């Protein structure tokens, strides 16, 4: 993903996991949620390590527009209505705290990351969207907000909601400033998680195993299906961004609340101009970048595009992240997911909550985020809608005549299954990104079948060749084709047991830890 952020900032390479290790707490995922969780745990004296499937900060964190704000679209009217004013105040309070916490960390560590206080705006261009009521709701929760009917955008607006004293920054330069002392393993994808007993979990990667007392799933979308059932409680949404030179300079940043609204946010001399949102897997016609390019030239004829990219995020059924214990039956597992495109404050709040829970500190006002929270009526309607879409795509796969797609390159002939290896949904082609996407849960693959986004954990190969191809890839990526005897024995054992490369996903297993006997 070639974004503005990773054009500016590069990270040192970290070693892959090549042996069996034991740690107190293992964090899966080296995006902002996982790294900040490890940061807080490190400062509390906890032995912690991070496993990343690819390169550090190579996922959705690199594609963020990095708005540090408690203004999460039109959420506060709905929170008060569904959960009451006290729990709505919890949500607002955690996100307002996160803005302050970023500023404090940046000052203490003297991180140069363009941290800037500014206002955040919601706007509607054509019709009344109730932004006046959203402002009143925010004020009830202690947020400094103001209702307006004009702003600095290049077109007239009907309504605008200003949240004052919010912030923006360069997220990758910030993260680079907090990594010292955190043990990170790159290119170490977790294929299976096995809970041996209470307080002991083993994670399997291609290079070795990790045995840990606590496990934190900060890997965007949890890939373990049972327990937790997060696949039934979330979907993913994608949106698109242009980085423009010679465009406008705005004091604040903006998000349109109408279905076709746009996002505006400056970073130095550049304007990040976004839009074109859709449920992942729902862009068969393409044209999202073209739409943004056309609008950019209409408003700023002299502008120049220097980069473009897309990113996706997990959307929960009630719009609130899942932060806390993974599931009642696995109390030493923790999860941070479902940030709904507001990952900067949600990730920091979640990292603080999880680190306090692991170290036994009393966590106040966490209930609004609990993955086990009571279902609301609005959540029930979204669950039905999500289930219908999933069922429809499963039926499409079952009824499809063509089960694979084939084409030739100068080097080889490609044949890919169109069945998502996560839970079997029919994949859809995204012409803007040249990728295969799952409309059910958002897994993504490039045109060669390489995995780009979870929750799928396997590459997109023809099922008859899947295990062979994974083994060949592993061998080719091992220096001089050498594999340690322990790793060779591990793969032979797992291939025989058929637990990693077959089935519909990772499952919680109960058994006896062989290393503890």
Question: Can you give a write-up of this model?
Answer:
This protein is of the alpha+beta class. Helices cover 27% and strands 29% of the residues. The protein has helices at residues 4-8, 32-43, 76-83, 85-109, 131-140, 171-176, 288-299, 343-358, 377-399, 466-476, 485-497; strands at 21-28, 48-51, 67-68, 116-124, 145-148, 159-168, 183-185, 190-197, 200-205, 209-217, 224-226, 234-245, 253-256, 263-267, 270-279, 304-316, 322-327, 330-337, 404-408, 413-417, 428-430, 435-437, 444-446, 451-453, 506-507. β8 (190-197) and β9 form a beta hairpin. The model is unreliable at 463-476, 478-491 and 493-517 (pLDDT under 50).
Write the layout of secondary structure elements.
Blueprint: H1 4-8, E1 21-28, H2 32-43, E2 48-51, E3 67-68, H3 76-83, H4 85-109, E4 116-124, H5 131-140, E5 145-148, E6 159-168, H6 171-176, E7 183-185, E8 190-197, E9 200-205, E10 209-217, E11 224-226, E12 234-245, E13 253-256, E14 263-267, E15 270-279, H7 288-299, E16 304-316, E17 322-327, E18 330-337, H8 343-358, H9 377-399, E19 404-408, E20 413-417, E21 428-430, E22 435-437, E23 444-446, E24 451-453, H10 466-476, H11 485-497, E25 506-507
Parallel strand pairs: 1-2, 1-10, 2-7, 4-13, 10-18, 11-25
Antiparallel strand pairs: 3-6, 4-6, 5-6, 8-9, 9-10, 12-15, 12-16, 13-14, 14-15, 17-18, 19-20, 21-22, 22-23, 23-24
Q: Which short descriptors sum up this protein?
A:
517 residues, alpha+beta, 11 helices, globular
